[in-house]
Amino acid sequence: MSKTNAGRFFEDYSVGEVIEHAVPRTLSGGERAMYHALYPARHAFYSSDEFARDCGLHEAPLDDLIAFHTVFGKTVPDISLNAVANLGYAEGRFLKPVHMGDTISSRSEVIGVKQNSNGKTGVVWVRTTGSNHLGEDVLSYVRWVMVRKGNVDAPAPETVVPDLAGSVAASDLVVPEGLSFEGYNFAQAGEPHRLSDYNVGEKIDHVDGVTIEEAEHMLATRMWQNTAKVHFDATARDGGRLIYGGHVISLARALSFNGLANAQIIVGLNSGAHANPCGAGDTIKAWSEVLDVAETDAPGIGAIRLRLVAQKAEAEPFSLKGDDGKYLPGVLLDLDYWALMPV
Amino acid sequence: MSKTNAGRFFEDYSVGEVIEHAVPRTLSGGERAMYHALYPARHAFYSSDEFARDCGLHEAPLDDLIAFHTVFGKTVPDISLNAVANLGYAEGRFLKPVHMGDTISSRSEVIGVKQNSNGKTGVVWVRTTGSNHLGEDVLSYVRWVMVRKGNVDAPAPETVVPDLAGSVAASDLVVPEGLSFEGYNFAQAGEPHRLSDYNVGEKIDHVDGVTIEEAEHMLATRMWQNTAKVHFDATARDGGRLIYGGHVISLARALSFNGLANAQIIVGLNSGAHANPCGAGDTIKAWSEVLDVAETDAPGIGAIRLRLVAQKAEAEPFSLKGDDGKYLPGVLLDLDYWALMPV
Amino acid sequence: MSKTNAGRFFEDYSVGEVIEHAVPRTLSGGERAMYHALYPARHAFYSSDEFARDCGLHEAPLDDLIAFHTVFGKTVPDISLNAVANLGYAEGRFLKPVHMGDTISSRSEVIGVKQNSNGKTGVVWVRTTGSNHLGEDVLSYVRWVMVRKGNVDAPAPETVVPDLAGSVAASDLVVPEGLSFEGYNFAQAGEPHRLSDYNVGEKIDHVDGVTIEEAEHMLATRMWQNTAKVHFDATARDGGRLIYGGHVISLARALSFNGLANAQIIVGLNSGAHANPCGAGDTIKAWSEVLDVAETDAPGIGAIRLRLVAQKAEAEPFSLKGDDGKYLPGVLLDLDYWALMPV
C-alpha cells in the first residue's frame, strides 16, 4: 500500500458520502497579521477590537475570508488534488465569526456526480461545512469541480445534479449574534456611505492595483494548508505556478475597501468563477457592481449583494464578458456575495 | 458622489483642522513575528519578555517602529495619497510603549501650509498623534509633504510655516514608566558597550547588507495599512514600485544592532530625509554617527542621539553628501533620532 | 575598540568554554503562523490545540523545528559567522515542547577543536543547549563547523575530537510529559499508517515539490535571528544568496507529511549533512527511508528513525550518493532523525 496520498479520482466519489477532512487548525493573531500583510485588508470590524466592541462583539473576529480559506484548504487533498478545474460555488453562508483560539475543521458531503461525455472526467458537487472546536458550524458552501477518472473503464455513476439556488435569499443570511450597527462609527470605518447611498446597478472602480509576487501567493496558499502542487512547483505546469483562486478573491475583496469600506462583513457567497488563470507578475485591479440590497432584523444592519470582479490592470475598466458571453481574457474573478452594511 | 477616496489636494487643508484617520488597528504577537521576519531586528527589549521584565516592564512591548509605522500608515489616505514628496519629520516623541492587544488610532492636526511659487503644489505640515484604546498618546511627530493642487486656480492660502525644533531636547524625551537599566544584562543584549563607551562624532559601519525583494517591502507596507499605490502597482510609475521609506528606516535600524545593540529604545525622532528612491534588488547597508549623549532621570538610563544613514552597498562606506551639499546618489536615508542606552 | 562583532575565529575557541548566546526570544502564535506560511507544515499535533489535547497536552506546542531554528539562530553570531562550512550535527535531543509565550535562550559549550593541516582553518565542535524562561532545557545538540583562523600564526591548539554517538539511542529519546497516542485520531492526522505499517528499508517518495523564492528563505532565516550575511546580501558571494540549510530542513520535513503524516513529533537528531548549496529558483522535492523503529514506555507511542533527503526536482527520484560515495549534485540535505509515531 502506497504511503502517499494520490488524491481521489472521479469514480471514488459517491453521492451521500461524508468526508471528514484532515488536520484541524487553531488560529491566532498570527494568521490575522499575515492576512493583513498579504492583502490590503482594512475593514474596521476585522482590524480593531474596539470597533468590533462598538458593534456588539467582545473582540474583532478573524477576517471572514480567513475562515473561508481555512475551511477550503482542508478540502483540497480530498476534493481537488486531481481536479482539472474549479467550476463554481453556491449557497455559501457564513454562520458564525471565527475568533483567535478557535480550532477549525472541515467536512464535505458529496451531493452530486456527473460523468462527462468524454468518459475521462466528471463533475463532483460537494457541500463543505467548517466548524469550530465547540462543534458549531462557522461556514457552509457548495463547490463543484471537474475531476479526472483514475480508471477510464470505471462505470459511469448515476447522474445526480443538485438543485442549487442562484443566490442565497436575504432571509437566509445569518447576522452574527449580538451584532448591531446602531453605534457604527463611519469615521473610523473610513467612508461615509451607508446602504441607502448605494443603488442597484451602480458600478464602482476600486482604483488601486497590486502586482503579485510568487512569494506572496505561496505564503498565503500554504497558510491555509492548501497543498495543490500547481501553486508551488514551477516545474509542474507549462507557464509556471498557477495562483490559488482564493488569493485573487482576497486581494480583490481587500481592494474593494476603496468604495465599499462599509461592506464590513461577508455573510453570503452566491456564486463565483475563476474566469482566467492568474500568475505572478500580473497587476490586479478590481471593480464592483451593486446587485441587490436587503434589510435584516438586526439593529441598523442591512445587506448588500455585490458582484466583485478582479481583472488585470491592462484590461479595460469594468471588463467582464465579450459579445460571445465568455469572460474577456483580462478577467480573473467574477464573485457574487452578500455583505452586511449599516443602513 | 464618487464612492472612492481620491485623496486630498493642497487646497483641501487648512491650518487648525484636525483629521481623525480611519481604521484603528489591534496589534498582536503576529505583527511582532512579521516584523522580526521582515527585518533583522534583535534589540533584546523587544525580543524577550524576560529581558523587558528585568528592565521593569511586565512584558516586551512591540518594537518602537511598529508603533511608528502603524500610526503613520493610517495617515496616508488623508495626508499623502497625492503627495509628490515626503519632505521631512520633526519633533517626534515616543510617549508610551505599545503592547500586544493595544488598538492604535491616529489623528493629525494641520499646522502649516505654504503654496509653492509654481502655483501647482504646496507644502502641508501636520502634527500626527497616535493613541491607544485607553486614549493614551503613544507617539507624536510632525511631518511635512509636498502635495499637488487639485484645482490650480484655487486661491493660495495664507502661508503658515510652523516653528519647529531642530531636535527634541533631551529633557523632553519620555522614558517608559517603570523602566530601569540598573539590572541591564549586557550579555543577553548582545554587546558590552554602554553610553560612556560612545564618543560624539564617532562613526560606526554596521557591516551587514540586505538585498530587498518586492514581496518583502509590500508585505511590510501592507501590514501598516499604508495604501499609497506607488508601493504596490508596478504599472503606476516608471521604474517600477517605489519602496516605502519606512521600510528602509526599519531595515537600517535593525542593521544598526551590530554596533548599537544597546541603543535599545527609540524615544525621539529629530529629523529624517528619504534622500533617494529605493527599489527591489537594491542591497542596503547602514552606518551611524553619534551626534550627542545625554542623561535622564531614570535609573541607569542615558540617551544617545544618532544619525542613521542607509546607503546602497555599492556606494562608498560612510556616504552622505557631496561637495554641493546634496545627498550622494547612493544614499537612501538620513535619520536623526534619540535612543535610550544604559549609562 | 570596534563596536561591531567581527565574529570569532578558530583560535578564539577553547575546549570547555561555555558561550551564553545573546538576545533571548519570546515566541507567540505569530511565529507559528509564519512557519505554516513558509512551509507546507501540516502535522496535526502542531496545527490543532484540540488534537494536542487528545494527545494529553494542554495545547499545541510550536513546531519542533521552530524550537530548533530559534536555538540555532542565536548561536550564529558566536559560532558560525566566520564559518567556511557547517559540517555536521549529532546527539540532538528534543527535551521539552516549546509553547507560545516561552522565552528561549541558547548556550554552547566548546567540546572539540582541531586545526586543519593547511594551518588556515580548523574544526570547532560545540554542544548547544536551548532553554526556556523557567530554566528548563528544551533542546540539545552537537554541531561542528569549519572556521577560519583570524591570525594564521596563532599556535594550533591541542586537538580534542569529541566521541560522538552515531545516533541517539532509542532509550535516550524524551517523550513529552503526559503524551499519549492511545486516543490518536488518524482521520484528523491525515493518514492511516501506524508504526507497524512501516518496514525498515522502506523508501517513500513524498511526491510534491516547492520552488523557493528569495523573499521566503530570507523571511524564515531572519525570523530565527540568524545573521549570517551570505543568506541576505546578494553581493556577498558569487552565485548570489545561499539559502540557510535549516530552511531546506523545514521544507523537506513539511513535504514529508505526504507519507509520514503520523511521524508527528521530532525527538532526536542523529546526523545531518547539507550536501550541496541551495538557491532561490531551485525546486525541492523530498524522500525518506525508514532506518529503524523502536518502542517507548509511553502509552501507544513508538519511535521511527528516518533518513530525510531533500533533492532538486530535476534529479533522479531517490537520489543520494554516487559510486564514489559522494553526494550527487542534486542532493541538498541528508538528515537522520527520530520521530514519535502511534504504534
Description:
Chains A, B, C: InterPro entries: HotDog_dom_sf, MC_hydratase, MCH/BMMD, Thiol_ester_hydratase_Rv0216. Chains A, B, C: This is L-erythro-3-methylmalyl-CoA dehydratase. Chains A, B, C: One of its GO terms (molecular function) is lyase activity. The structure is a homotrimer of 343-residue chains. The first copy, chain A, contains eight helices and twelve strands. The first copy, chain A, is an alpha+beta fold and 343 residues long. The first copy, chain A, has two domains: 1-27 and 62-154, Thiol Ester Dehydrase, Chain A, CATH 3.10.129; 193-343, Thiol Ester Dehydrase, Chain A, CATH 3.10.129. In chain A, strands 1, 2, 3, 4, 5, 6, 7, 8, 9, 10, 11 and 12 form a twelve-stranded antiparallel sheet that branches. In chain A, α1 packs antiparallel against α6. The first copy, chain A, is globular and about 60 Å long. The model of chain A has no long low-confidence stretch (mean pLDDT 97). The B-C interface holds B 28-34, 36-40, 42, 44, 47-51, 59-60, 100, 187-191, 193, 197-198, 204-211, 213-216, 219, 258-261, 283, 313-314 and C 1, 3-5, 20, 22-26, 28-31, 33-34, 77, 100-101, 103, 105, 133, 213-216, 218-220, 222-223, 225, 227, 229, 232-236, 241.
